[in-house]
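Sequence in, structure out.
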Amino acid sequence: MVSYGPEQRVHVPELCAAWREQTFLHWAYAPERVQRLLPDGLVVDTYEGSAWVSLTPFVMAGVRPPGCPAALPDFAETNLRT
């Protein structure tokens, strides 16, 4: 579950899952190259003058509602982030 601090804790989760076989790949780009690919209204985030693009392939495992013993079969997923 994602949280940006203790004040945003999830009290009742909607879904349980695990990430398995993760890989993290990162590339630095000039911010203006990434900015022109983003939707209007979004501003590229930078770190030390570079915009970072991350590719994260992984396997989702045990995806199920809380308290439910049955889960979906494992499946591959990929996140592309900036």
